[in-house]
Amino acid sequence: MRYHTLALAAAFCLLPGLTPAQVIPPARSPVGSAPTADPTTTTNRALTLEQAWARAHSASTTLHAKQAQLVAAEGLATDAASWLANNPQVSAERTRRSVPSSSATERRNEWSAGVSQAVEIAGQPGHRREAANAALQALRLEIDDMVRQQRAEVSERFYRVLALQQRVEIEAQAMRLFEDSARAVEKRRGAGEDTRLDANVAVVEAERARNQLATVQEQLLDARAALATALQLPPSESIEASGSLSPSPLGYSLEVLLQSVPALPRLQALNAREQSAQAKLRLERAARYPDVTVGMNVGREGPGDARERLTTFTVSVPLPLFKHNAAGIGQASTELAQAQIERRAAERDLPAQVHALWTKLQSLQNRIERLQRSVLPALADNERLSVKSRQAGQIGLLELIVTTRQTLDARRDLVDALLDYQTTRTALEAAAGWPAQL
């Protein structure tokens, strides 16, 4: 019967992947059993999403650089916790004095010692401690937020690799199908059963399938390189993403996510930065008041038979006539205004972002359900009908190719929709700070 080989090939390659309840399984190799392979791959490393998170957390240079700033912030908080901002000053003086007299020159050894301390009188120590502690808290929250953002970035790159692996499997199946079709049509053309047009169409479709497979393989190489960069893996290792793109139960609602936004580390860090800026402004304003320096000195002076013991108390205050710390106050005011603007912008934008991502996620979920419930079963039915019609000689090669392409496009659409779903869900949970504890 004419085109029997082509019909069987189409049924074998396309029908198993189109049952309505079936989601395309995770890929185990970038090209399935296709004859072409990735020539740059030297070592394969199979990773799950959790393993990728752990690897990125331990290898991230950006995160380590941020954590290194904790030492400076903790040191600043330690200095701010001291009783006084300035250390006391100790002074000592020894004088050898020659005093002329009627009989001979008298030499006297005199000495003095003292201690002085500058004291802030406008509450600067409290403002300094508040600013340092708030800055330290903000830095720790920023590190937590960076960990969340890093996990979201790794998740997006991981899911892209996983989706492209599945796309490569689809394109490899399509290439095998159209190559088998081209060979079968060429044999029938040699036997005089098919026309040259049918043979040309089959050759073109086979070449298009090979080009599509090569394109997706190139995209997979780029995606793997991007993921390897985030994981700090050597160039000789190729990543095999191990997991599933299938949607899982969310476990939260839009109201729950919106309630978790105020507890987001990013917002808390911005609040802490604003508190630190407010304390710095109060500190700079208090710096207009001069520090009072108090001191005490003791010493011995006078001739040996009439030595005097001196005890002196001193108080010195600089007169604030010319310098009023206008530059420091202006800089602190600018930093406070910027911190307030960033905090208000984040409080306004994050709930809107969560709402928008939630709406998009629901739309993607509905699209996936429609593909699995309506489109894919209908295409599977069309494929079975077209195979039977082709076996019976009721349709031509072009009609069968159209049906086959529709089926392949539907499978591609499903993979793309699953990828969009997972990346949108990742962005949504990162924007809402879900879960509260990593």
TrEMBL record:
Protein keywords: Coiled coil, Signal
Disordered: annotated segments: 88-113
A molecular function (GO) term: efflux transmembrane transporter activity
Signal peptide start and end residues: 1-21
Biased composition (Polar residues): 88-104
Coiled-coil region(s): 199-226
InterPro entries with a match to the protein in the record: MdtP/NodT-like, OMP_efflux
Organism domain of life: Bacteria
Family the UniProt entry places it in: Belongs to the outer membrane factor (OMF) (TC 1.B.17) family.
Protein name from the UniProt record: TolC family protein
